[in-house]
Design goal:
Two copies of one chain form a homodimer. The first copy, chain A, is an alpha+beta fold. Among the domains of chain A are: 107 residues, Uridine Diphospho-n-acetylenolpyruvylglucosamine Reductase, domain 2 (2-Layer Sandwich); 119 residues, Alpha-Beta Plaits (2-Layer Sandwich), CATH 3.30.70.2190; 78 residues, Alpha-Beta Plaits (2-Layer Sandwich), CATH 3.30.70. Chain A is built from 16 helices and 19 strands. In chain A, helix 1 runs antiparallel to helix 3, helix 9 packs across helix 12 and helix 13 packs antiparallel against helix 14. The two termini of chain A are 25 Å apart. In chain A, 57% of the residues are buried. Chains A, B: It holds the Pfam family FAD-oxidase_C.
């Protein structure tokens, strides 16, 4: 992962967990809630990619908000640092302790209950340790949709999703994780519980605290419960695979798709030919939906909560008309609409297998950046030039959630180049990509957050004034720096 | 307005504006930007209802962010308090200085430029002093919708809308003001400028600062610019007027309307018969769309960005089918779909004239509260009983943005009762309504904010932990308490 090598450990509290504190932790969470064995701790202190490993005196697994509160209060009173963790699926090391960490890792995994589903009011109240897929399934059983959808959904937990403001493939229509939340319960750095667990769509009573805790990666408090918004279940879904002229065509086409679909565009994923070829090479059974003479493709999905009416025009009819118009306009070169569930699943499989295929292909570099949607083509164009200037044989396979302005700007190393050699080019390419995206008013981390990996990059690229405000807030809410210390921000 | 009489002035900075400071202010904003004459200051220091009047040594009208920054820095260095103001249309006194205020009032009215419209990217970058209606019109000229829509739109300014997280009649579909924003520029309490003016849909790089400044009513900084989201212009709009069984029927019906309309419900306004009768009494030309034997009505509007196709089913066909189903289900007793623009305008005129009609009717009480949508019927039922227990001859006329859980729980005084006598009952009724809404997990201020009017109510009803977090943030970002002091929070 680019940048990791540049990161030096920040100064964090190093108060050790004494046997007396351990006894008090055991008294709060019981033997079942305490992991001390090095082997058993390993999966918690190692990030899922296996690239970062830290330490923790104990993995503490409270089963209720009261237990979380008691654990945090104990740590607070003793100056002990806490690394909160959900499903441990983050890509930036936000949930992985630093090697110099001497405090505890607090896992929310036992707080995994759905507390209430209000299908008439379109809300669901849940504990932070619920697996994302469980929440999707629970909503579906009530004929509702919980739209957060991402690769790790089988193991990531909602508390982590909210703490990192997760993105995924449905942001275009439903927004990031923070947009799916009405209320939160948070355990603060001193152990107090903030009860903001309100199921209110409107509430103008002072500062909006929930948005401060979401995306803070556990550095300001620990999210323990949430009231989530639900939507109607899509009943008429139409996916299409488009060969397009270029990225500009994708932007223009998407701009018109909003109206043509009745504002029902649910996904718009841009893929390069290199991306698709890589999946076809490595993923058994994946089939190319369309052979065309172009470098650029779109997976476009429209979905409606209204079932297709007998004799009425459904999503696929509208899509067909839209694609015909776009062919005439020269933006689309060829297109196929999924006629069956199997065809649609195959299209999605290609998109979702890119990460797996890239791991099989070999060492690479990837940048999760965003920019104003209308500037994506310019970014891709200039970004490719910059990277190829540094390493002409690098193999780009850009893709992205184009409707969100989010490009996963990705490269495979040159054929035959090993990880270490590629690593020597990585700092220069990282700097070039980040310089470019910053000069274009974009973000160096669109959806994956900061964690450990991008600590120094944020420090470098963010204006001093903005970092100062963040530090002021961090110091005010966590004066002893015990909440996930050394993540997101350097305080010193 | 209930509660106002209960509020005692909080302790705020009282450093006066010396002639030397005045000279420096003049050097920053010029003669054109400085109002010192008492008569000319009056409209700025008086709230639009004419119920609150404060003081200011000077009304300062900077024309640029650099000028705002210089003015704030000057005040900061001298400990002088600042009341920021947009269109001065708030209902809670948030933009009105306290009578003991000795500092300046900073009006954003001269910063009224639309800086950029990106119609392909669906964004618009604007200065804080732009009138809301100007922004709606600008978007419309680009075939785009800026959906914020409320009674004061002809004079309120976007900076004030964002600082108060304004609501209005399209929240159900598009969200509150905070949901319409991608980026902000804010002048901080020390005069520094935070440049968060990013047109990014995704940006996970540290704490979300923009949501902290929105809804803070100018107590943490002054919003000077914003990047706003745009939507496709509705091309197929259908309004219907429904006589319904009761508020429960409204909730059930709305729950089904999301899917039936393709998630295209744009408004769902509940009105009581008393509400409609009051409008018919006082507003010349208003016509009752439907005479029915029921106490409850809904104005339901669906809108789609997709023009009605020749021969295809448009919004009104779907609405017709939906209403037929709801008649069968017994939720709707009678209904009429607007067939012409004039009919639709008449329906909306009734809804929008309620405030004007109530002023004509005489003294009254109104509570802007919210609760989980599915609990609205219970709230209305219990709330009416509580108020009638205290004053049996009071005349309720509840209405609300029911899709947002937001009820404007309103009462006219008993016939013939003067304002002063009604005022004697007001504290007891206010307390009963607020106690009830709080016990139901609701909000005592759904969309109008806190300002001066609800300072004591927030203090009374919010949990100590939550008030403590807010105070901690306020003290951290504005240690000298110069930004709109004595609003939202009591610090002492």
């Amino acid at each position: 992962m680019p940048g990791a090598a540049l990161v030096t450990a920040p100064s964090i509290p190093t108060v050790p967990v004494t046997p007396a504190v351990l006894d008090r932790l055991r008294a709060i969470v019981g033997d079942k809630g305490l992991i001390l064995d090095e082997h058993d701790k390993r999966p918690f202190v190692t990030d899922w990619r296996g690239e970062l490993t830290g330490q923790a005196a104990a993995v503490v697994r409270p089963a209720s908000t009261a237990e979380v509160s008691a654990v945090v209060k104990l740590c607070h009173d003793n100056g002990i640092a806490i690394v909160p963790q959900g499903g441990n699926t983050g890509l930036m090391g936000g949930a992985t302790p630093w090697p110099v960490h001497r405090g505890i890792l607090l896992s929310l995994g036992r707080m995994n209950h759905v507390l209430h589903v209000d299908s008439v009011g379109y809300t669901m109240t849940v504990e932070a340790g619920c697996i994302l897929q469980t929440l999707q399934d629970t909503a579906a059983r009530h004929d509702r949709l919980f739209p957060l959808s991402l690769g790790a959904q089988g193991s990531c937990m909602i508390g982590g999703n909210l703490s990192t403001n997760a993105g995924g493939v449905q942001v275009l229509r439903y927004g990031n994780a923070r947009n799916l939340v009405l209320g939160l319960e948070v355990v603060l750095a001193n152990g107090d519980v903030w009860d903001g667990l309100r199921a209110l769509k409107k509430d103008n009573t002072g500062y909006d605290l929930k948005h401060l805790f979401m995306g803070a990666e556990g550095t300001l408090g620990i999210i323990t419960k949430a009231v989530l918004k639900l939507w109607p279940t899509p009943k008429d879904v139409c996916a299409a695979w488009l060969a397009i002229r270029d990225p500009s065509a994708a932007i223009e086409l998407l701009s018109e798709a909003h109206a043509a679909s009745d504002d029902n565009v649910s996904s718009c994923e841009l893929m390069s030919r290199a991306c698709i070829d890589m999946v076809l090479r490595h993923i058994p059974g994946a089939q190319d939906p369309l052979k065309a003479e172009t470098d650029w493709y779109l997976l476009l999905e429209w979905s409606s909560a209204r079932p297709r009416q007998d004799g009425g025009a459904g999503m696929s009819d509208r899509m067909e008309q839209f694609l015909a118009d776009q062919l005439d306009a020269g933006r689309v070169l060829d297109a196929v609409i999924a006629q069956t569930e199997t065809q649609s699943r195959n299209m999605w499989r290609i998109r979702e297998s890119v990460a797996e295929a890239s791991r099989a292909e070999g060492p690479g570099l990837s940048y999760d950046v965003s920019v104003a949607i209308s500037r994506i083509p310019e970014f891709i164009d200039k970004g490719l030039k910059s990277a190829l200037d540094i390493l002409p044989t690098i193999r780009p396979y850009p893709l992205g959630h184009i409707g969100d302005g989010n490009v996963h700007f990705s490269f495979m190393g040159p054929k035959g180049m090993d990880r270490a050699t590629l690593g020597q080019y990585s700092p220069a390419i990282t700097r070039a990509v980040n310089d470019l995206i910053t000069s274009m008013g974009g973000s160096i981390s669109a959806e994956h957050g900061i964690g450990i990996e991008k600590l120094d990059e944020l420090q470098h690229y963010r204006a001093r004034t903005e970092l100062d405000i963040m530090r002021t807030i961090k110091r005010a809410l966590d004066p002893d720096n015990i909440m996930n210390p050394g993540k997101v921000l350097r305080l010193g």
